[in-house]
Every structure is written in structure tokens, then in C-alpha cells.
């Protein structure tokens, strides 16, 4: 009987040969395992004829493991391999040119090694500067070495060292500025005079910053009102108004800043200057006002109203719309200072005999009164914008700082601090907008001005500077709305201007 042989391709035979050999080998191993238990001679014969079949199987397994390890190593290398560097889309040929640096400059002359080295390339100059630095430091410092030699135990320590290395490789201001003003030395810069574009020919009596615009007002005995744009450099003049035979004793912006009110020394009338229309209006008569002169006044923060200081202890509230007296208050003795709280609901006034009165504006009723601690004769008074502090000045130069809350609750309040840095009567007091600084001054002595740090109740040591006179005799002081600038009016007709560096705004 004839049998047909299936035709097979050589490639199929080659592919099936290893598989068939492996099956035959496993079959032989099983049969040998059965025989090995009964016939030891068979085992010896199998080893002589076929060799150690078990050893061959173990070698095959080891080869497969080695192949798997090699394959995993290749995959790891491919994964850790850095990405290929991309070619630049555009190359500037000028970048390849080496720029020569002039070595004869006074900053680089020490690096020259001979008179012939007039120029050096940037790379050589950098290397020479690096060598000089390392020579002076005794070698390259650890923070300048790029490859960090770190030995850490865990990931947390590794992260901490990385942060330290990054910190040492950068330069800059790592200490953030505090929001609160520090005591001791006040960071400030002296600027051009606020009225440098038009100095006064006589003593300045008033200086005030506009409540919303970057403008300052000055006025004095030369019968003029002047407005300047505050920039700290030139302070250009906006406008100047001359009032005929009217030496200005006091000038202030209205509550909204659209009008300037000015009073004189011996006149009953006062002027109102409308800045929008450029119109000057004299107020010759106020209905219900029986006073020989109008000199001192205070602008109410509540609206268009003035609190006029009269004689014999009277205070008169006058509306600017109808020009009439709406209410009056009376103190014992002459009024020497008046101030209002931030919302205009209360009036603080001190008399010449050292008493302080607190009035309610709506009811015209005296809420309380007390004697200024240790004061014989009062001279000035001021309140802070945040409603926390009250400052009272005396003829002896002592300025007592009180808590407004304590003044309203106690008939004999104790001052938070008695400031005794003035030797002559304290005639000018003013707080800044954040109630962190109190400016005190006396017009009876040159350079008699101080800035007080309210949180610590201590005086800044760097104002005024004792080397040269520039403050002279101060009659008025003011801070800008956000305390960025500070100015004062002196007897020389100037308004020195200072930039307070702690405050960022105007």
C-alpha cells in the first residue's frame, strides 16, 4: 500500500523542528522518571547515551530568564534616554562672533596681566573673573558648584536640601516688608518743596493735601492761595489766586475738595474759591453770627458745613449752602483748639484753662468734659481718622495721647502716653490716615517738629535731621490721603515735602 507524503515547505519544517524536539524531550523525561524508580541501571545507561536531560532543561530556563532581563534593560534605557535635541529654526550668525571687551576701563583694569591686553573676549574675561574669585575665596564655594554632592536618607531630606540649594543659587530680597510701620527710624526721602514753583514771599500759614486728587494747597500772609501738582520732582504749579489785602490765616479744602475756604487774621469776611469754575466769592455776612472776626474754623467731614471758632468760648456750626448758623455750643473760657471725629458727629474742643469738651453735633449737647492730665494751659487738639486716638497739646510742650473711648467713658481719663519732646508750646498736631504717625510741632522755635510712632509711642530718631536746618518754624502740617507724602508750612515761605517710603500710595 502506497502512502502519499505531504509536501512541506522548508520554512515550516524549520519552525516545527524545535517544538517537536522539546515535546520528545519532555516525553523522554517522563518515561525516564518512571524507569528511574525501578531500574538504577537504566538511569546510568540514559546518562551515558543522552547526557543529563535535567541539566539541559535548567539551562534552557536560565537562558530564557537572561533574555527577559536583557529585554527589560533595553526598555529601561530607552525610557531614561533624554529626548533628542531639537534643531533651532533660525540661527543668527552674529551670535557666533566673539565680542571684545575693553580692559582699560577702571572697573576691569585690575584684571589686566599686561599693557598689551587692551581687549579680551567675553569668555576669557569670565574665566579670568572666575579664577580671581576662586583665588580670593580659597577655591570654589559649595553653593557655586553645579553638581550637588548630597547624601540624604529619605525623600523628605532630599526635598529640603533641594530647596536650600535653590535658595542659595538666587539673589534678591528674601525678607518681605511688613504691613505695619516699624518704630525707630522712619524710611523717608526729602523731595523738592511742594511750592517750589511759586514760593511765598511771607510766612506760610497753611498747607493741605487734596482729599482725592494728587494736589496740595498752600496759603500764607502774602495774600495768596496756590495749588500744585504733587509728583515729588518738580511739583508744577496749577494755579495761584491773589486776595487783595487779605493775609490768609487759614485755608482748607471743603469736604468734597471742590472749594477752598480761606480766613484772615482780622477780618469778619472769609473767601470761598470754586476751583471748577475759577470763581472767588467773598462771604461778608453769615446769618445769625455775631462775631467781630472769623479766624479759626474746622471743616465738617459730614458735609458742606463749617465749625467756626468765636469769642468767649462759642462754637458756631455754619452751612455753606445758606451761609447761616444752625447751632452753637459754648465752653468755659476761650477756645484754643477744635477737632471733629471721622463722621462729624462729635466735636472735641479744649479751652485755654486746660479742659477738654466733647459735644454731640446733632443735639448740641455736651457729652463729657475732663481736665487734660497735667495741663495748665492748652494750645492744640487733634483726632485720628480711625476714631481711636485724641491728642492734646499744652503750653509746656507736652502732648498727651488719649483713647477716645476712654475719654467718653471716664471723667478723669489717663493718657496712653505723655510725649515730652517739645520744649516750647505745641501749636500744631496732626495724625496720618492710618493713625500710625502723629506729627507734633511748635512755631516758637526752629526745628521744633517731631514724628511720633503711635503703636510704640516713641519718636522717630531721624526727623528732623540735625545737620542742617530745613524745617524752621512750623505753623501747619499735613499728610497725603494715603500717607505717601508729608508736608509742612514754615516761616520761610516754603513747604518742605517728604516721601514716606513705607506707604506705597499717594
UniProtKB/TrEMBL annotation:
Basic and acidic residues: bias regions? 9-24, 65-81
Its keywords, alphabetically, are: Nucleus, Phosphoprotein, Repeat, rRNA processing, WD repeat
Q: Where in or outside the cell is it found?
A: Nucleus, Nucleolus
Q: Which InterPro entries match?
A: Utp18, WD40/YVTN_repeat-like_dom_sf, WD40_repeat_dom_sf, WD40_rpt
Instruction: Assign the protein's first listed, main location to one coarse class.
Output: nucleus
**A cellular component term (GO) from this record?**
small-subunit processome
Specify where the region named Disordered lies, as residue ranges.
Answer: 1-28, 49-87, 114-170
- Extent of the WD repeats: 335-369
Regions annotated as coiled coil: none
Lineage top rank: taxon: Eukaryota
Regions of biased composition (Acidic residues) lie at 53-64, 154-166
Task: Give the GO biological process terms.
Answer: rRNA processing
Q: Indicate yes or no for the key word Transcription.
A: no
Q: Which Pfam families match?
A: WD40
The Swiss-Prot or TrEMBL record describes its family as follows:
Belongs to the WD repeat UTP18 family.
Q: What is this protein called?
A: U3 small nucleolar RNA-associated protein 18 homolog
Amino acid at each position: 500500500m502506497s502512502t502519499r507524503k505531504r509536501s512541506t515547505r522548508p520554512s515550516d519544517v524549520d519552525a516545527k523542528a524545535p517544538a517537536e524536539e522539546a515535546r520528545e524531550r519532555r516525553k523522554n523525561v517522563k518515561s525516564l522518571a518512571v524507569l528511574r524508580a525501578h531500574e538504577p541501571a537504566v538511569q546510568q545507561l540514559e546518562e551515558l547515551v543522552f547526557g543529563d536531560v535535567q541539566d539541559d532543561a535548567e539551562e534552557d530556563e536560565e537562558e530564557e530568564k537572561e533574555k527577559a532581563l536583557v529585554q527589560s534593560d533595553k526598555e529601561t534605557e530607552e525610557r531614561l534616554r533624554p529626548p533628542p535635541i531639537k534643531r533651532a529654526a533660525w540661527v543668527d550668525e552674529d551670535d557666533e562672533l566673539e565680542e571684545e571687551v575693553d580692559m582699560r576701563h577702571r572697573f576691569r583694569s585690575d584684571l589686566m596681566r599686561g599693557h598689551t591686553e587692551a581687549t579680551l573676549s567675553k569668555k576669557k574675561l569670565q574665566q579670568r573673573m572666575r579664577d580671581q574669585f576662586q583665588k580670593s575665596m580659597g577655591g570654589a564655594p559649595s553653593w557655586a558648584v553645579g553638581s550637588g554632592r548630597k547624601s540624604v536618607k529619605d525623600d523628605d531630606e532630599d526635598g529640603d536640601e533641594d530647596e536650600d540649594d535653590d535658595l542659595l543659587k538666587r539673589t534678591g530680597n528674601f525678607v518681605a516688608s511688613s504691613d505695619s510701620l516699624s518704630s525707630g527710624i522712619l524710611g523717608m526721602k526729602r523731595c523738592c518743596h511742594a511750592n517750589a514753583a511759586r514760593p511765598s514771599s511771607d510766612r506760610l500759614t497753611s498747607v493741605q493735601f487734596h482729599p482725592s486728587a494728587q494736589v496740595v494747597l498752600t496759603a500764607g500772609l502774602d495774600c495768596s492761595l496756590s495749588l500744585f501738582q504733587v509728583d515729588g520732582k518738580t511739583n508744577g504749579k496749577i494755579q495761584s489766586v491773589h486776595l487783595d489785602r487779605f493775609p490768609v490765616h487759614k485755608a482748607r479744602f471743603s469736604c468734597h475738595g471742590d472749594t477752598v475756604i480761606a480766613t484772615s487774621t482780622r477780618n469778619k469776611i472769609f473767601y470761598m474759591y470754586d476751583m471748577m469754575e475759577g470763581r472767588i466769592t467773598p462771604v461778608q455776612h453769615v446769618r445769625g453770627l455775631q462775631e467781630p472776626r472769623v479766624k479759626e474754623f474746622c471743616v465738617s467731614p459730614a458735609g458742606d458745613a463749617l465749625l467756626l471758632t468765636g469769642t468767649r468760648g462759642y462754637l458756631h456750626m455754619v452751612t455753606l449752602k445758606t451761609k447761616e448758623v444752625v447751632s452753637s455750643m459754648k465752653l468755659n473760657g476761650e477756645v484754643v483748639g477744635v477737632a471733629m471725629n471721622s463722621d462729624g458727629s462729635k466735636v472735641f474742643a479744649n479751652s485755654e484753662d486746660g479742659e477738654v469738651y466733647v459735644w454731640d453735633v446733632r443735639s448740641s449737647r455736651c457729652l463729657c468734659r475732663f481736665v487734660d492730665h497735667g495741663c495748665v494751659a492748652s494750645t492744640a487738639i487733634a483726632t485720628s481718622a480711625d476714631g481711636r486716638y485724641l491728642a492734646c497739646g499744652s503750653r509746656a510742650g507736652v502732648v498727651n495721647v488719649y483713647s477716645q473711648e476712654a475719654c467718653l467713658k471716664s471723667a478723669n481719663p489717663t493718657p496712653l502716653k505723655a510725649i515730652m519732646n517739645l520744649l516750647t508750646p505745641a501749636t500744631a498736631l496732626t495724625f496720618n490716615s492710618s493713625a500710625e504717625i502723629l506729627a507734633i510741632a511748635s512755631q516758637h522755635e526752629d526745628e521744633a517738629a517731631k514724628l511720633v510712632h503711635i503703636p510704640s509711642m516713641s519718636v522717630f530718631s531721624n526727623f528732623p535731621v540735625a545737620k542742617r536746618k530745613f524745617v524752621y518754624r512750623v505753623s501747619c502740617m499735613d499728610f497725603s490721603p494715603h500717607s505717601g507724602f508729608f508736608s509742612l508750612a514754615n516761616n520761610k515761605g516754603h513747604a518742605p515735602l517728604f516721601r514716606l517710603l513705607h506707604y506705597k500710595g499717594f
